[in-house]
Amino acid sequence: MIVVVGGGPAGRYAAMQLAGAGKEILLVDKRSDGLGGQCLHQGCMVICALNDVARTMEHQEMLLRSGIIAANPVPDYAALIAKMREIIEIIAGIIAKETRTAGVKIVNAEAHIDGRTVIINEERFQPEAIIIATGTHPRRLNVPGEDLPGVMTSHTFFSLPSLPRELIIIGGGVIAAEIAYIYSLLGSTVTILARSTLLKELPDVLAEEAKRELHRVTIQEQAVVSRIVGNDRVSGVEIKTSDGIRIIKADTVLVAAGTEAEIRTITGIPLTPSGFIKVNDRMETEIPGVYAAGDVTGTSSLTPVARWQGRTAADVILGGEPPSSLLTVPQAIKLRNDLAFCGHHDQGGMKVTMTSPAGPGSFWAIPERATGNASMTTDPDSGEIIGMFEASPYASVIAAYHALLINTGMSIDIMKQFIEVHPSADATGWIGRFLAEKIDEKKKD
């Protein structure tokens, strides 16, 4: 028997693959609300649900300013959250059925791991192999006032019974920006407090685009949170900046300052200096027969990477070799547009950037010059595609296919054969053809 601990993308993918190969699999997940991990219950799907509503609100605002509609409807926040939870429950039921149908036995319990031993409901196992896919939990700030009512994390925030009036989000990453965008459109007054700069992991052009799309949000960069203030409930956040110390009012605070490995029930497994489970490129820990995959390894907080690692662990257990390493992983943040990127777009090469054209989802943004932008970079000597980024309604899909081109070493020359579906809000097809022609001209010279 093989025991997989954690029913998120990494663990579930590994469990199903192993079961499909004829292995006896026990998948242990402690969530009472079903499989799917943070991606389904607190992350990706929640953002998708709420972002759909926020984008609808923004589109309605544009139509209102254009005189096309007479009023902007106000969403019922309690109904929104309730309906979202209802749909997430449907998804959880579907994936549980899918997992069981694949031959995986699911146990709803908290597993304890001590080296090669798994303890479930006081019963001890030493299975053929163990895969740890327990994910992460939100990191604490460790400042006074953090335990006041009204101070939330991504694991508790969406249980709020009503829309915050004054919301402060502490953090400068993707989660902070996405939630700020959503709640500023739902009607909250939103402030982001970033310890350094907002979205520093994005290409500079996309980070600036994100700030334009967050124009309803107050963004305070280089802000150090010294304490959260309040008596019976949070009333504000005290920050230190180059201008001194001040308090910003809030009735709700969301701490989105990163995550830590969920290893509170795990002992005897070596960790990295930053507290994640240490693995090699085969997803093996330093304990023979024990593997780890997904966010608990600290390599990425991306669902596709978690699935990739789960597949790798399963392949190795079955006697195969891990898949070839990836040159790039596509990433995106969802605001008014998808802001997506992959590759090394800021490291030289031949680059072309242009405004994204009008298309589905962006036609009514033309008067405000808010259709986004796109860029591609190629090596002028080899013609290999180095990187790309795009801000457009569906850029995340575009970035995934460009990542495939980069990971397979394709030349920009292939873009001569590209023909888009029209109308489209994507500019990379045009840019790719232009770059291919420019490289041909360079070779002739």
Strand count: 24
**Quaternary form:** single chain
Globular, elongated, flat, extended or rod-shaped: what is the shape?
A: globular
| Main beta-sheet annotation | 5 strands, parallel
Question: Percent helix among the residues?
Answer: 25-40%
Give the helix/strand class.
alpha/beta
Number of helices: 9
Report the radius of gyration as a whole number of Å: 24 Å
Beta-strand residue percentage = 15-25%
Poorly predicted residue ranges:
none
Strand order in the largest sheet: 3-2-1-7-19
pLDDT averaged over residues: 95
Amino- and carboxy-terminal Cα gap: 64 Å
Write the layout of secondary structure elements.
Elements: E1 2-5, H1 9-20, E2 25-29, H2 37-41, H3 44-65, H4 77-101, E3 104-108, E4 111-114, E5 117-120, E6 123-125, E7 129-132, E8 136-138, E9 151-153, E10 166-170, H5 174-186, E11 189-193, H6 204-213, E12 218-220, E13 224-230, E14 234-241, E15 244-249, E16 252-255, E17 259-261, E18 266-267, E19 290-292, H7 303-317, E20 331-334, E21 338-343, E22 350-355, E23 373-378, E24 385-392, H8 395-407, H9 428-444
Parallel strand pairs: 1-2, 1-7, 2-3, 4-18, 7-19, 9-16, 10-11, 10-16, 11-12
Antiparallel strand pairs: 4-5, 5-6, 8-17, 13-14, 14-15, 20-21, 21-24, 22-23, 23-24
